[in-house]
Amino acid sequence: MRIAYALIGALCMLAGANQGAAQAQGAPLRAGDRVFIRAGSDTIWSDSLPVDADGRIYIPRLGAVDLRAVPAAGIATVVRSALATLYRTADASVVPLRRVTVGGDARKPGVYYLPPETTVRDAVAIAEGASEIGRANRLVLLRDGVEVVLTRWMSTSDGAQVVASGDVLLISREPWIRRNALAVVSTLSILVTTIVAVTR
Question: What is the pLDDT of residue 20?
Answer without folding.
Answer: 47
